[in-house]
Write a structure and sequence with these properties.
The complex is a heterodimer of chains A (141) and B (173). Helix content of chain A is 62%, strand content 0%. By secondary structure, chain A is an all-alpha fold. Chain A starts with a helix and ends with a helix. Chain B is α+β, with helices and mostly antiparallel strands. Chain B contains three helices and eight strands. In chain B, the strands form three sheets. A three-stranded antiparallel sheet of chain B has the order 2-5-7, with no helix packed on it. Classes of the chains: A mainly alpha (141), B alpha+beta (173). At the A-B interface, α2 of A face β3 and β8 of B.
């Protein structure tokens, strides 16, 4: 019975994930609020950080997960909490690839609404410290 | 409880007699293959074709009134040796850009337009076009066209602007 249940969950999993994201709306919001700097495929350019194949590494620590919402481009964007949560989940789904190494719990509008109340005043140093913490967390694994 | 047991046992036995295990596999396999072939049917393709990546367009791209330029602020690359989609020779297109939406009068739909600047040469000087629809003050830097968008290029010298259709605007139905 357990096996059957697992099978069903495995079958339903991707469907449930797909229902959370409206791909047309998420793409449009990405284009209007993120793509200008992060480029169409998330590669970034010069000082604009790359998201493609790397953004998932932030999910390793709680502070890293929160960073993706608190970074100014997210926190102070014109997007609603629901739209921001959707576009973040879409970015993880579309761009993160193999950089996601832990089970990803999609962002909810409530979580995003709470975290974006605390935008990061200084990003460059914070990010460097965060990446150092993530690297040592990975070493401990 | 016993009668329930009996009922289920009876039904299970009946089911086992009526159906084969391979039959189950056959049905499942048929469903899998069948579902997979749905996108191959012409109906599915017709539906996908409804969202045109290349819109039907009217007008002169070397004119400031051209529909794609609704939010532009700069020199039109179409007048500078390039086109609405491409940079003039000797310049480099900035990957970092500002993005807005314009309504295409030919089909009445709103499209997402990326105003990629062409950089690496001094200002073109021809066909200055400033329409600024949806332009915001610089406190919304991602939605202002007053800053120099030659940001991802080797040179920050601004030459002219393109207006590339990158998608269809999402509208809540």
């Amino acid at each position: 019975m357990k096996r059957v249940l697992t099978l069903w969950l495995a079958l339903l999993g991707p469907l449930a994930w797909g229902e959370d994201i409206n791909p047309e709306r998420a793409l449009f919001n990405y284009q209007m609020s993120c793509q200008g700097c992060h480029t169409p495929d998330g590669s970034g350019a010069n000082a604009v950080p790359r998201m493609r194949d790397v953004v998932g590494m932030f999910l390793v620590t709680e502070a890293g997960r929160e960073y993706l919402v608190r970074v100014p481009g997210s926190a102070v964007s014109a997007l609603s909490d629901a739209d921001l949560a959707e576009v973040l989940n879409w970015i993880i789904q579309e761009f993160a690839g193999a950089s996601v190494t832990v089970p990803f719990q999609p962002y909810t509008p409530q979580e995003v609404g709470r975290l974006r109340q605390h935008p990061l005043p200084e990003v460059v140093q914070y990010r460097a410290q965060l990446l150092a913490d993530i690297a040592s967390a990975k070493q401990r694994e | 409880m016993k009668s329930l047991d009996k009922l289920f046992e009876q039904q299970a036995r009946q089911l086992a007699q009526r159906s084969s295990r391979r039959g189950m596999l056959k049905t499942l396999g048929g469903l899998l293959v069948g579902a997979g072939s749905i996108p191959l049917l012409p109906v599915a393709r017709a539906a996908a074709a409804e969202a045109p990546a290349r819109p039907v367009e009217e007008g002169d791209e070397a004119n400031c009134d051209y529909w794609r330029y609704c939010a532009i602020d700069g020199f039109l690359c179409s007048c500078c040796g390039g086109t609405k989609n491409t940079c003039p020779p000797g310049t480099e297109m900035s990957p970092v850009t500002w993005i807005g939406t314009c309504r295409n009068p030919a089909d009445g739909r709103n499209y997402v337009i990326s105003y990629n600047d062409c950089c690496g040469k001094s200002s073109c000087g021809a066909c200055l076009c400033q329409r600024d629809e949806g332009d915001r003050p610089p406190y919304r830097p991602d939605k202002t066209n007053d800053i120099n968008w030659c940001l991802g290029t080797s040179s920050a010298a601004y030459h002219c602007s393109t207006a590339i259709v990158v998608g269809v605007a999402f509208e809540n139905k």
